[in-house]
Amino acid sequence: QVQLVESGGGLVQAGGSLRLSCAASGSIFSINAMGWYRQDPGKQRELVATITTGGTTNYADSVKGRFTISRDNAKNTVYLQMNSLKPEDTAVYYCNFRTHFSDYWGQGTQVTVSS
Fold this sequence. Notes:
This protein is mostly beta strands. 0% of the residues lie in helices and 57% in strands. The protein has no helices and eleven strands.
């Protein structure tokens, strides 16, 4: 199974910024889209942002204008630039690669925003 390795999480004060990265280890084929999701204990995983290989993006209303998703198709890497962070953004963030055949998920990286 393809491994997705995440990095960039951490602790930051409200108003600060973080940049998450997610890279596929090994070959991956037929990628349709990449995305970021987040989840807090006791809550369902929610979509944060997605991007197609062609560059079309979608954002959750709660992060629109503050977060930017980008990708490097050649490197099979997706990024999430998070600015103006709020305590409500605190969660475990998971990257996702969607292919014609299956979904691949990262291990999750903790983002904690203090007020």
